[in-house]
Amino acid sequence: MASLRRYAIASLIVWLVILVILIPQIIELDKRLEYSEEAFIPKESESFKGLIILLSLNYTVGDYILVVFSPNDLETSKRVEDTVRIVLQDLNLNGNILGPYTIYATIRGYIIGNITYKVNQSIVYYNLLVKMGEEARRSYIWLLDALNKTYGLAYAYLNLYIQAKSMGVEDPAEYAYLNLSTRLSGDLAILFYLFQNNFKKAIETLEPREAAREAMLETIKLVNIDLYNVLTQFRLEDYTNSTRVTEYIYNVSRAQYYNMTFDNFKILVDNPRDGAFSVVSERLRVIDMCLVDVLRESIKNGDIKSLVESYCSSLLDKLALYPNVIPDDLRIMLISNSYAILYVSLRESVDVILASQIIKSLDDMLKSNVREAYYYGTIPFYYDLSEKTVREIRRIDVTTAVLVIILLVALIGSLAAPLVILLATGMALAVGLGLLSIASLYIDVYYLSRALMIPVIFGITVDYSVFYLFRVVEERSKGYSWDDAVYQAWRRAGRALMLGGIATVLGFSAYVLTPLESLRGIGLALTIASATGFLSSYTLLPALLLILGENRVFWPYKSLRLPGARQAIILKSIAAHSLKIRGLIVLATIVVILGLLLYLTSVQPSANVYLSMTGDSRYVEASRVLFTNFPVEVFSKVYIITRDYNIDYLVERLRGEGLVKDINIEKRGEYTVITSGLPVDPLDDRVFNIVESIRNTARELGTEIYLTGFPTLRIDAVSSILDTYFTYTLPLAIVLILLYLIISMGSLLVPLRLLVTVVFSATTSLALTTIVFYNIIGGDIYGSFIRSPIYWITPIVVLGLIITLGMDYDIFLTSRIREEYEKTRDDKYSIIEAVEKTGVVITVCGLILAGAFSSLLLTQIAALRQVGFAIALSILIDTFIVRPVIVPAIMAILGKYNWWPGRGLIRRWD
Length: 910
Prior knowledge:
mainly alpha, four-stranded antiparallel β-sheet, 72% helix
């Protein structure tokens, strides 16, 4: 006996050491789980290949968040965008931000830049005009001086000549010359001398005025040919006319090249700077008077951009009127009557912890800046799933524990024994979660796996423990001491536990052997759950019973009472009656299985992810706001990638059939990318038909395409998982379990019969679950279309759990039938006796396991409610119909062939 206790203490120490080692891993579990179904996309799928092409073409297809906020005014948009930038900066994240204010500011900046450019151009023009005016002014002064020295001299000479002639002077030309020459000196004296000579020649043929002009021209021609060319443009009558002089300069200058009028040029010559400002202002004044002020001020300091914003606010308000200034195609995806949207796309992927930090930071900073704020996209999706799932799991933990305690106390009649069982269960749960956390470092584990582990571990550990505990009591009633009774129960009932435990582990291991990582993650979680639950009840519970002793285990009683005789007699009577009508029962079983299978194959499960979220999900609320106030095609995008250059017909077909909206075509490298909006919610089940239609249309046209994007990635992930499960994983699980049971039991027909009864439980529970949730409960689907309220993962999980867990009670019963058969060799007697001896114990186990899974009914996640309802219903069917009615009937028909061909491993365990 001392050796047994030493083994017990050693077993407890091992469990405690393992638990201490795994505590840090348990803490890290939540952030290691995978919350996106897209993480499980098959690498060979069309959508995944298309995603790789998009990434190679520098498309941004990563984690994103849409902030939907109200009010939708410009100031609020600016505050929201500033807040998001601060959050990204604080978390060292790189991303692109697109919102109403960003676009407005960009367009306003473009307008300011355009105005600034015009003012800049005006300043360039102003400076050019100033330079031109200064040059014209110098030319004007030079020309006046030149005219005065030439035509002015000629004009004075002509007046003296006419005067002398009227006075009768003999030589009037000489008279004029002598009167003027005394006043001249230098070059001008020489010029006048030459002029005198030329005048004497010209006067012979020309009248005096023309002679004077011609004489001066001839004189200048000899001295300065350029001046000669200028003087030819004037006459003696207008050489002093300033307007005529300005006109000449205007005609020979570049003023006309710049479309400058003579009046403006005249102002420019009078005062180059004022004239230039007047000319440029006249042009700017046509646009807006504020530009004249900007021009005036910018001439002084040159800070044009700030001057434009300061002086042209009214002009900017007219040109950049919010929100009308935003182009229609952008406005429709950014602003509605009540809400506006900010798009934030990150360049890196985020995990659940980082997603939680982003959302919580936004909440903290936005609560005082906006009236309403909703978050949509992959980041809030991950956050919502993790946050609400953790909350629901805590509720499941507490609820399951409370239900199990209540059921254990009510069914066992002891206060301490349930606590001992729960201690073993808690240890199994903690170790299981720790092992799952380590496994999730190497394989993606879907977040629902953790929620499913809890009732599985509770169910297996509690069921096996209760079954074992009652066997201890039975052995104790035979006169064994407490320690011997614990050992004998472990030895005799242990083979049933071993059979069930290994079969359960094998069944779930089929998931781990599947080619899809998503199923491997779920299978790994359930395999760990079943293994830790079985090992806890097989090793830890016996150790606790030995260490605590009988009095402590059954406190406040001295021992546990054996199952009630009355209930056992009722079950025995039911089993005996089923043997009499065994043919009818078997026929009815087959008919029910075939009928329900036909019904189930006609019901398509839903892939609407809203069914996997809570009713109070903020993501769901954001979806409702988003799709109520904005066109759905803006957010439901697919990418059609093709090398076919003749895609016009494809686009016309897709548009004509109403499959896509809001089409944008872009050529990048060797590919053409068609970005299309779908007319339905991207999580809507109608997406399946639309995507399939797009693919079929492309195939009809012989176009090689890759269809990708969030909706198609989900479709390929879900379709691949369902196909693989029903064509590979489920058959493999059945084969592994059957092979193991055949080898272990040494029987071919008992495992096959077991499969039939499990299929009966599975089809019945799934069909009833579908009917209840489809026709009675329905379900809040948040306005999004679903094919049925049965979530796609429900049949996968339910079938896996029923096939593995559902066989336990059958194995418990079958093992006892075999044990009784080995004593009596009487088939009918063995069946009835086994039902009587195990009936109440298995009923208690069934009620406890059903209660454990019933805790899922209290969650707000529809998918988990369906799983909990189906599993609990299946266990109750198995407990109250299959075990006492169908199993005895089939085994009675098979008779001695139940144990054909011979011995198996089960005898070796004895």
